[in-house]
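#lab-general

N.A. 3:47 PM
ok so I finally got the sequence cleaned up, no stray characters, all 320 residues accounted for. can someone with queue access submit it? mine expired

B.Y. 3:52 PM
send it over

N.A. 3:53 PM
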Amino acid sequence: MTGVVMEKSCLYIVVPCYNEQEVLRDTANVLARFLSDNSDLLSERSRVLFVDDGSRDKTWSIISALCGESRRFEGLRLSHNRGHQNALWAGMDTVKEKCDCLITIDADLQDDVNAMRAFIEKFQAGVDIVYGVRKKRDTDSAFKRLTAEGFYKVMAFLGAETVYNHADYRLLSKRAVQELMRYDEVNLYLRGMVPLLGFHSEKVYYERGRRMAGESKYPLKKMLALAFQGATSFSVKPIRFLWKLGLAIMLLSLIGGVLDLLLPGFDPGFTAFSVWCACGLILSALGLVGEYVGKVYEEVKRRPRYSVMEYLQSDDAPKG
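B.Y. 4:20 PM
back already:
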């Protein structure tokens, strides 16, 4: 379908939700208004799909109420919390046959909703993937800016193809989503997987705002886990680095031992230090290798990424 200019497109906006009761109704109002205000580009079949990722608050009851109030909304309830990446995957997998294109956006709407019009215009001009990219990180703390910039540089060093200052705010054409669904790995890192598709892509730059209410669902612990997931899912360079570091420490230890024997006045503390370094390196290497082995273990089991408890859609919703 790429390269074909359509008068109006069927768009699905996929919104992962985890304990978002404070912002959900405001989010729904903003997204419904966007669909209405852009009716010159979007067909009446366009929808917003909220994916409840095992929330423990009133998120699902609000989603259910929204679905009853307007045909614009659909709700997908996962049986338990599977994490942000799996929730996104579940939503995309559910609507991949229903839409001409889809956009993924977080429920807090810190990403500028108005940028989606530019997404759609580029899609209708023949672009399969449109990345939402932040112009700057003024709303972040100094620590978060530093760690974010460091993350992108590390990922580039490891050889993973990522888009700088892009999270999971993007448009995918129908064929791009269908192709993405062919990737079978259980350990998902969408920011690295989408560029692998190789389809025609462009960027739209926007200003990121602050949360309307509630707390971030991606604290430092989860951000570090996602970064580690990306690093170990897309590169074996960390293991190769440890091998080279281990070789260097071994050579330094040998040199230190020879100097201890040949030079009576040489400080033997160097040798002891190198032994402790070697021990620490061995433990770190074993842990890292164990992480890779654990990923292989998870992939081999082929367990499903998610389980659906309930799916709410209007009677006139597009049929996949």
